[in-house]
Specification:
Strand order of the largest sheet of chain B: 1-2
GO biological process, one term (chain A): phosphate ion transport
Keywords (chain A): Cell membrane, Membrane, Phosphate transport, Transmembrane, Transmembrane helix, Transport
Number of helices of chain B: 17
Radius of gyration of chain B: 30 Å
Largest interface: A-B, 118 and 117 residues
CATH architecture of chain A: Orthogonal Bundle
Number of strands of chain B: 2
Number of domains of chain A: 1
CATH architecture of the largest domain in chain B: Orthogonal Bundle
CATH superfamily of the largest domain in chain B: MetI-like
Organism (chain A): Helcobacillus massiliensis
Family (chain A): Belongs to the binding-protein-dependent transport system permease family. CysTW subfamily.
Structural class of chain B: mainly alpha
Structural class of chain A: mainly alpha
Helix content of chain A: over 70%
Shape of chain A: flat
Distance between the termini of chain B: 31 Å
Number of strands of chain A: 0
Strand content of chain A: under 5%
Order of helices and strands of chain A: HHHHHHHHHHHH
CATH class of the largest domain in chain B: Mainly Alpha
Radius of gyration of chain A: 24 Å
Largest sheet of chain B: 2 strands, antiparallel
CATH topology of chain A: MetI-like fold
Protein name (chain A): Phosphate transport system permease protein
Oligomer: heterodimer
Largest sheet of chain A: none
CATH superfamily of chain A: MetI-like
Distance between the termini of chain A: 17 Å
Helix content of chain B: 55-70%
CATH topology of the largest domain in chain B: MetI-like fold
Strand content of chain B: under 5%
Amino acid sequence: MTTTSPQKTNRTPVRLGDRIFTSLSVGSGLLIFAALLAVFLFLLAQSWDAIRASTEVMGQSGEFSLAEFVGPLVFGTVLAAGLALVMAVPVAVGIALFISHFAPRKLATPIGYVVDLLAAVPSVVFGLWGGVWLVPKLEPAFRFLHESLFTRWFPMFQGSDQEVTSPMRNVLAAAVVLAVMILPIITAVSREVFLQVPRLNEEAALALGATRWEMIRTVVLPFGRSGVVSASMLGLGRALGETMAVLMVMAPGLTYTLHVLAVGQHSTIASYIAAQNAESTGLDMSKLIFAGLVLFVITFIINFIARAIVSASSKK
Amino acid sequence: MSSSAVIKDQDLVRGRAAQQSPRPKGPRSAAAREERRLPWYHALVTAGIALALSVVILAGVQALVGLLPEDQQVNLVGRDFSPFSLASVLVFGYVLHLAVAYVYSRLREGRRWAMDRVVTLVVTGAFVIAMIPLVSLLAEVVARGLPRLLTPGFLTGTMQGFTGGADGGGILHAIVGTVLITLGASIISIPIGLFTAVFLVEYSKTGVKRMLGRGVTFLVDVMTGIPSIVAGLFALALFITITNDPGIRSGLMGSVALSLLMIPTVVRSSEEMIRLVPHDLREAALALGVPRWIVTVRVVLRTAIAGLTTSVTLAVARVIGETAPLMFTIGGLTLLNANLFEGRMAALPLVINGQYAAGAAPCSGDTVINYFTRAEYACNTGINLERAWATALTLIILVMVLNVVARLVSYYFAPKTGR
């Protein structure tokens, strides 16, 4: 793109139409900067009341503590997204390998479309499906994890009988739905990276007598590692910010427990905001907007790192 | 075997080798035999063995557990987990298949090929796992949503006056709302997105603009990850700050929130489409003395129009189902409001969430009267969920139609890039 660009010569006068068009397109580019800055500034402006009224700023005389308010939400958000990531990444990498290296050539593209279909399903429909269909289906498996001799020793599967009750609208069920929702993005990015592996390296490995798996282990995976890492972080960003699936599947609560089968113990930032009265005003709304600001900053940082890894590895 | 065949691919090796140089007949060395790969139908044999083993083992476990006292049963498998069910047989059978296939292949083909087989199975299994939610979701939505969707009046009526379990009501107001709000979002984002894409491809070549272009590309990528609810809160915060009215709600706010999510999608995909336009076309037009902006509009965008249509359609399909940005911005309404700029509006995703949250409807009598039209309806406790599923089906149909249209446009009207 650098070599063959049609250079504008200095002899031709700059026409008015050209000038307008150029400034319009440069302006649109600047608008992207402005939009992101505006998101941050307007959220900050509207959450200013909550920040000013908190004990953190006012000392002991504040009306409430922002840390106590946001802490459980951040914990729940990270827990749900982390669980989703643990479930989604191996499957997504498997699918990406399947599409890029295992599926028959003719089938690879349609299979890619089918996986992309998952991304086309609106999140509210995932929530409906998760809440109505999936939660009862998962219940026997959750009971097994909680009560069976083989798995009940695992600390995360424990919890009192009052907590682990049906319907099992717990954070693990929400994480399963989240995992399904972030599969397509992780798959798509990993697949792109796996397809970028130099063909000659793959062929060299095969020519040396490697089986397909040995070729993947020695050539594809080392090449694609950073891509998979950034794909996972993009998925993490999606999972952190997903609202509807968590809202519709999980029963909310505000504790710090790691018992993932316990019902009504966790909330995520996004689902908490959505669950509150949308008509609230004043300090309540200000607190919600502050929670949104925290979510924005967290996802921005995660996405920033992920994209930095992608662009650093694609420059090589 | 010719060397050109060797460097191609495993799949091709067999085909090419068969065509070009038939395998030499006669006894082969031990190494060659070890390297031989079995035809695909041997996988069916191992799968059959694994499935049979799975059935036998799980049925045995079920019988043995049944002999134990109840508290011991709970100890072993939990309260309502049945070892012998279709799902458990399939899952356990799959795991067994990994082992069976490994042993089988190890005996017939050797250690390295056995590992290859297992990995192939694992990878294929990952794909099948991902298909379970997709298939079950589509099946559930169609099965539960279709009856209500086909009920007369569902697509042409609104929810005006419907309370409790009244067996009626429609989503016309939400369809109108969704279409208008998405249209508004498109009107905001398509020009901005297209101009940004044009800037990135055509104008960010040198100096400051080049650096700006780098920054924009990066930020657009980061922007695709903005949580949808944050977009909604942003629109709310923006309008509260401008109007100083904390209760303000309108369709336009929803459009602004959606456009924040739509712009990055439009930019990324149209940028790729514009990059596909061959440089020769631009240079030819510029050489004729055509002004730069006319070249961009009449040549570059004209050539890429099919791809641009596709990318815009896909972006619309992406935001049309967004719920969270609308929760705090359009307010929701049970009647028809077709004015984007004033008053609350309804949207399909909000209806799904609202009806789902309402849950089972109370039924005190056999009939419920619509207080607006004075019509009498039968009482149905499941009506809210029925409406939610039918609305979900409507939304999915909308999204799928948009996706199919986008693919068809790019398939039939794609620019000839000389590939």
